[in-house]
Structures are given as structure tokens and as C-alpha cells.
Fold this sequence. Notes:
Blueprint: H1 8-43, E1 49-51, E2 54-56, H2 58-87, H3 90-107, H4 116-139, H5 141-144, H6 147-177, H7 184-209, H8 221-224, H9 226-238, H10 242-272, H11 282-311, H12 313-332, H13 337-365, H14 372-401, H15 404-410, H16 412-423
Antiparallel strand pairs: 1-2
Helix pairs in contact: 1-6, 1-7, 1-10, 1-11, 2-3, 2-4, 2-9, 2-14, 3-4, 3-7, 4-14, 6-7, 6-11, 6-13, 9-14, 10-12, 10-13, 10-14, 10-16, 11-12, 11-13, 12-13, 12-15, 12-16, 14-15
Amino acid sequence: MKFKKGNKKTLNAWAFYDWANSVYSLTIVSAVFPLFIGGYLKEQHLNKISVFGSQIAHVPLITYVTALGFLIVAIFSPILSGIADYKGNKKTFMRFFCYMGAVACMLLYFFSVTHIYLSLLVYMMALIGFWGSLVFYNSYLPDIAYKEQQDATSAKGFALGYIGSVILLLVNLGMILSVPDENKLQIMRYSFVLVGLWWFGFSHYTYKYLPDFTNTNKVTKTIVFNGFKELKSVWQELKSQLQLKRYLGAFFVYSMAVQTVMLVAAFFGENEIAWEINGIDKTMGLIISILIIQLIAVLGAFLTAKLSHKIGNIKALIVINCIWAVICVFAYFVITPNHFFITAAAVGLVMGGVQSLSRSTYAKLLPQTEDTTSYFSFYDVSEKIGIVIGMAIFASVEIITGSMRSAILFLVAFFIIGLILLYRVPKKIE
């Protein structure tokens, strides 16, 4: 069937990949894995993990591993996107990273401190698979959707992701709560396998309908490094695109803080909240808070799309970043479960909105070009480098101060800088 831009079936299939892969970000990053590693180390009577001759707490260790994973994605995505742009085979690369991530999720079943380096490598490979596939997934949006369709399609993707991941999380929660405490860790391992199977299986609906632009061009050594040349070219082109350049600067800063908060939120809840005050089981309490985030995020994504339609994308992002800054300040004082639930609701309201709107705003600001992969590679590299810096700063502040609260509060500075930079972006988007 000949590809037709704006086709609803294609747009729905694109959005459905969020349904497939978001179970990784929810179960592995946000909910079950943070609970698993905390419970696992407690079972092993370990407060810290021995790596490279040093003892380090598991939260900064996972944070540093996460930063390294994002750094690898930032380095290799320009190379691969350059090849994808030349060969037109972004669908092949998207599928490769998807499969790698799904298999790595299943291999987390074998996580142990006895094989800690291999276990951390598998954790990092899942991360690389997830974010690597998004490089090519995001670049499809301007190829398949007209500008007036991009906000709604992007929001639909995030909404499907939240709904699908919640469904699987509820299944995992039911499994975990149905067994005695001594068996919960084993059930959590099974949940990692379910994530991999879900991600692998549902992604095939997306691949069925996404267009394949593959051509017969031959890849040479020069082409391999074309990605970096294209990034340099995009950088040069930005000099004449004031609105896009200033938006990217703002996005780099505030996304650094947003992604860091989202990546460490579950560890904060697992370590810093006194669940026993209200007699709430930690596993149940943390998963409930994650469910609150996910469910409200569905509403948040669509409310943000409506807000951006009413006041404009940039002004909507300014409002959302103000809310993020307030959330981080409030989180510094959060101790009780009820206050954590309130914080989770606030995070949910702006989490989906800031991701969806950031992606669609960038797509709408792009100049008329067929080279969307290079532009989205630049976007993704900027985001990943920001995450590397944000996660490294967070882990370092936590190690220095001995407090995750101080590290969270430190991120407020990035939201404030991001706000200032957003105010400098020309507001009108056609």
C-alpha cells in the first residue's frame, strides 16, 4: 500500500509504539525495579554495593549507570541517524533497539550482586534500547503527520503509553501482592520478563503500518560519520533560525531537570518516605503513587494540548515549568505518604504535558526539510547530554550531602534558568 502522509491508520500505529515501550519506563525505571533492588539488597544484608574497589549506595550507582547509558546513546545516535538518513532505514534501526531493550528487560530476571557488572550492563542495555529506539520513533512524526496533526498525535502517543503501562503495572501489582513476602522478589523478577514480552509483542503493530523509506544506497566510511557532519550542519543552520535556536537552549536546560526528576522519583519514594507512619506497605504505597502519576498524566497530556492551542506552545511550556519548580521545592519537605501522593498527582499533571508539548513544539518549529532525522537527532542528542549532566549532578550532590532531598532541591535552579530562556523565545508558532 502506498504511503500517504496524514493517514489516520499510520498515525495511530505510530502512537501505539508508546503503548508498547512505555512499560519499560514505568515498570523498570519507575516502579518495580527500584523496589526490587532495595528489597534485594536488604535480603542480602547489604547497605552498599562493591564496584571497582569502592562501596557505593545503590541509588547513586544506578544514577551513574543511567548517565553512562544516556552518554552512549548521545554518542552513537548521530552515527546511526546519519546512516538512517542516507539509507532511509530508520524503521530497521528502531526495530533493532526495540528488540535489544526488550531482551535486556527479560535478562534482568537474573540480576544479582554476584554478577554485578553483568547485571548493571543488562540494566544499561535496556535503557539504551528504549532511548535508542525513540531517536528514530520521534523522527517519524513530521514524516507522517502534518503540522496541525502533530500536537494531537504526540499527545495520543503519550496517553496510550500511560494507559498501556498502567495495565501491565496493575497485573504486576496483583502478582506481587498475591504471594507471601518471602516470594515477592521472585515475582518482581517475573515482571521484568513480562515487560520484555509486552514491548516486543505490541511493537509489531507499529512496524506493520509505519512506512519504510529504505533505498539501495551503499554505506561507506564517509556515510558512517555523516551523522556528526549533519549535527554540525544543523548547528550552523540554527544561527539563522532564532526561534528554534532559543527554544533548543531552553529545552536543553529544563529537560535536564525534568528527566532527572522522573528517573529518580521512585528511588526517592523508596528511600525518603516514611511509609510506616500511616501503616502503608511500601510496595503498595509506591506503586499507588506511580499509578496516580500515570493516570493523571493521561489527563495532563490532553489538557496541555488544549492549553497550548489557547495560549501558544511557548507560553504553555512556561506555565508547566513554573509548576515543575514548585513541585521540586515542595518535594524537599515531603515525608509522609499522603504528601507524597499529592506530589505524585502534581507530577502526573505536568509530566505528560511537558514531554508531549516539547516534542511537538520542536516538530512545528522545524524548517521545511526532508532531513527530519538529522534535526531530531540533534534534538535527542541535546536531551541525552542534558540527562547525563543532570543525573551526574544529582548523584554527586547526593553523595556529597548524603541526601536525595538536597539533590532534588538543587534541580530547581535548572527550571528557573529554563524559564528565563523560554521567555527569550519568540512566542508565535505558525
